[in-house]
Amino acid sequence: MRSTDAVVIGAGQAGLAMSHELARLGIDHVVLERGRVAERWRTERWDSLALLTPNWMSRLPGHDYAGPDPDGFMTMPEVIGFLDLYARRFAMPVVEETEVTALHRLGGAYRLETTRGAWLARVVVVATGHCGVPAVPGFAAALPRDLLQLTASSYRNPGALPPGGVLVVGAAASALQIAEELRAAGRKVVLSAGRHTRVPRSYRGEDIWRWMELAGMLEDRAEDQVDIRRARAQPSLQLVGGMPRRNLDLGTLRAAGVRVIGRAMGAEGRVMRFADDLAVNLAGAQKPLESMLARIDTLADALGAPHEAWPAPLQGFGPMPTRLDLAGEGIRSVVWATGYRRDYAWLRIPGLVDERGEVRHRGGVAPARGLYLLGLRFMRRRSSNFLGGVGADAAAIAAEAVRHLATTSGRQAA
Hints:
By secondary structure, the chain is of the alpha/beta class. The chain folds into two domains: 2-132 and 342-407, FAD/NAD(P)-binding domain (3-Layer(bba) Sandwich), CATH 3.50.50; 138-336, FAD/NAD(P)-binding domain. It is 26% helix and 22% strand. The protein has nine helices and 23 strands. The strands form seven sheets. Strands 1, 2, 5, 6, 7, 8 and 23 form a seven-stranded mixed sheet that branches. It is globular, with a radius of gyration of 22 Å.
């Protein structure tokens, strides 16, 4: 069994940022990765996807975007290259093709069972991030087997789907982008939309992310939220990356010919049931949109930015069907873009995972001493799971790890 002071699990943006910070503080460590560096970006994203955030926001500790197009949006190959270069530039101790299958407490340390042997460490950082396992509703199993079912992680492009219509379920960025791409490819598309977060791509002369950063929204702290569980469950912003900048919301999809209906509720053979709740969810998205823009307006007015009217509420979608015969509608594929859940079955520490399947933590510090998390949504601040925000959390967790190591005895023997 090999030993080190710290083990980081995952070599995505969070794990690599953590490695940089541990190395900066002189902490001996390894990064264990089930696949390759940036594995999820390589294998769990569709072909045309670009980052929602502009390139100038792509910044990790010691490694900022330095290309010729700071206002553009990285494609998936560019993101992979950005993270690959980061790992090589700092000679990060990444051990690839090594999946952690179990984590046990062993005295004052942790034993990690992997597909390539065991490790012992006094500090473990779980940096597997927010996008774990696709959260597909249980009733999906009731749909007929000849209906192709994909998730946002397994969808690649319209040509990979059988001929016919497509039902896309979800209302966050992934669902809207996939629905738009399918419709542009000539497919009949029905979008089942639930609760969502609508924002304009640009506002008052700047990209919305520029305003959010200038207004301090990305630094909103988890402890200041009235309901942190709700904040962490908020759907991702309805945005699309690419130039020229353009809005993407349920209204633009409707204008493109996508049929928008309410939230999926169940299935009976080829018939799916939906809630008649689209009007409620549209209205529910307008209030936080206007609250955000009012906060931006205060700053924009002070800076003399050109005035711009708020986006009007979306209305007039008509009566919503509560049942849909998929065969009758010519729908042969379903894409579930319904978010993610974390799979922590390998964490063999009693009481660590709560009733919702999430690790208990406070700002990434778990109740088990020496165990930390990184890269989760709204972990410490609104930008915690962003490529441009995880670095600050990594620095804080590295400082916590140093304090823990200072209070324990020398390195554990194998």
